[in-house]
Amino acid sequence: QVQLVESGGGLVQAGGSLRLSCAASGTILGIYAMGWYRQAPGKQRELVASSTFGTSSDYADSVKGRFTISRDNAKNTVYLQMNSLKPEDTAVYFCNCKIRVSAFRTSDYWGQGTQVTVSS
């Protein structure tokens, strides 16, 4: 059984910064992809940033130059550094990981979500 635990959300003034963390625990044989999504009220969930082994990080156009995704494989943790935050960034942020949990199965897992609110 694998769990993803997110932290780092909160209330911040426009122009400020936050760093989100997502730690995976359980039976983990490998993590092949990590990403951050967000969902604002009344809107669909959207991909914010992703990182895949052997490739460069990718970002939504709306966050390029402001957000940075990184990971620490030793800690099974992915981070999202968010700078120059805007009110439009207000949303619930979810992490997602593709994890090998056995020799025969790789599955996607989602965190519970953490609220980010940016005030103007």
Record the SSE blueprint.
Elements: E1 2-7, E2 10-13, E3 18-26, E4 30-39, E5 46-52, E6 58-59, E7 67-72, E8 77-82, E9 91-100, E10 106-110, E11 114-119
Parallel strand pairs: 2-11
Antiparallel strand pairs: 1-3, 3-8, 4-5, 4-9, 5-6, 7-8, 9-10, 9-11
Compact description:
The protein is an all-beta fold. It has no helices and 11 strands. Strands 2, 4, 5, 6, 9, 10 and 11 form a 7-stranded mixed beta sheet that branches. The protein has a 4-stranded antiparallel beta sheet with strand order 1-3-8-7, with no helix packed on it.
Number of strands: 11
Query: What is the radius of gyration computed over CA atoms, rounded to a whole number of angstroms?
Result: 14 Å
Helix fraction bin: under 10%
Mean pLDDT across the residues is 93
Separation, N- and C-terminal Cα atoms:
41 Å
Number of helices: 0
| Major sheet details | 7 strands, mixed
Q: How would you classify the helix and strand content by structural class?
A: mainly beta
**pLDDT under 50 segments (min length 5)?**
none
SSE sequence, one letter per element = EEEEEEEEEEE
Structural shape: elongated
Strand coverage percent = over 45%
Describe the structure.
- The chain has no helices and 11 strands.
- It is mostly beta strands and 120 residues long.
- The model has no long low-confidence stretch (mean pLDDT 93).
- The strands form 2 sheets. Strands 2, 4, 5, 6, 9, 10 and 11 form a 7-stranded mixed sheet that branches. Strands 1-3-8-7 form a 4-stranded antiparallel sheet, with no helix packed on it.
- 0% of the residues lie in helices and 59% in strands.
